Sequence to fold (266 residues):
Amino acid sequence: MARKRKIINKKVFIIGDVHGEYHGFASVLISSKLMNPELKWTGKKNILVQIGDIIDRGFYPMQVDKLLDILQEEAKKAGGKVVRLIGNHELEILKKNYTITSLPYFQVEDFRNKLIRQIKEGSVQAAYTVRGFVITHAGICNKLYEVFKEELPAITPAKLVKHINALFKKAVLSGDYSHPIFNISFIRGGPAIYGGIFWEDLRFLISNYDQVPFKQILGHTRTMKNVQTEDGRITAVDIGLQRVLEGTYSYPVVNKERKLTFKKVA
Fold:
């Protein structure tokens, strides 16, 4: 008699760019029951994915960083998981392009060194996949997907994410950021025709994603509300954590049936 496969009833919570908005971030975590008011992980075996760009603009980036460190350890002990992705603001610090950051110099070097340690350990990464969704900071457009098809014989979300994370780690350790995943497109003031997974612009992505055969969740481009294409293959979640105070912030949750819904912060 065949063994019945156990279905793990985990939910996946995705939170977009934080940009130093510590209080808004904490409010979302408490509202989602991933954390209690004492700042302890209460998410049990659930998964939190933070999509990158925890620094700059807001006043409390280091507090956000420290909180994520603590929750990542506590979630692991509870059988859950906190996934930390890199955004373009962290990437530029890794590249020693400090003109983009509002962190003071005495903090930025320590933050960079800490990021490199975490990337080596695997506690911070460039991409993540869960339940058929591929999650990156800024998304994968058709032209970048064509590059991946040349590099990988048969692409699945798991193989692609493993490949992206290997490319990213190699670049951080070598200092060579020439792969197209690091492209900055002309729309964002860069030299490339299309952007990579850290710098792609949502306007270009939405007009240029149809050949990518899986669903994507991303942040990076600030919008007035969460954006989802009609086919559900693009979900963009960077609406700004200041909207928590306005009572209009919502975040996506993916359940075991792979259904994505938006939950409003109570």
Observations:
- The helical segments are 22-31, 61-78, 88-94, 105-121, 142-151, 157-174, 202-206, 243-246.
- The first helix runs from residue 22 to 31.
- The radius of gyration is 18 Å.
- The chain has eight helices and ten strands.
